[in-house]
Amino acid sequence: QVQLVESGGGLVQAGGSLGLSCAASGRTFSSATMGWFRRYPGKQREFVAAISWSGDSTYTDSVKGRFTISRDNAKNTVYLQMNSLKPEDTAVYYCAIQWKGIYYYRAAEYDYWGQGTQVTVSS
Q1: CA dihedral for 103, 107, 112, 116, sign (positive or negative)
Q2: Confidence of residue 28 (pLDDT cuts 50, 70, 90)
Q3: Residue 65 burial by CB count (10 A; 0-12/13-18/19+): exposed, middle or buried?
Q4: What is the pLDDT of residues 50-93, one digit of tens each?
Q5: Using CA of residue 45, residue 47, residue 51, residue 52, what is the dihedral sign?
Q6: CA triplet 12, 18, 23: central angle to 5 degrees?
Q7: What secondary structure letter does DSSP report for 8?
Q8: What's the rounded Cα separation, in Å, for the pair 110 and 60?
Q9: How far is CA 61 from CA 4, 21, 102, in A?
Q10: pLDDT over threshold 80, residue 120
């Protein structure tokens, strides 16, 4: 069993920054692909960013240049630094983990999920 525990959400004004963390336990982290997704009320989860075991990262177009995903394998933790936040970034953010290393943008390919953390950006 794998546990993912997120932290760092909150309320921020537009243009501000927030950092999210996700700590993993229970299985080999260093070989996993880690992803961040978000969900708007009444919508399905959408892909935000992912980072491979080797550190290669990818982002959805709407956050490129503003968000940065990173990982610390020694701490079994993945991070999402969010800068220049916009009201449309308001959502519940989830981290997820998979070991397939493919289709990282598909929520269905992830094996375990965190509980989610609310990010609210006021205008």
Answers
A1: positive
A2: confident
A3: exposed
A4: 999 999 999 999 999 999 999 999 999 999 999 999 999 999 99
A5: positive
A6: 135
A7: -
A8: 17
A9: 25, 21, 19
A10: yes
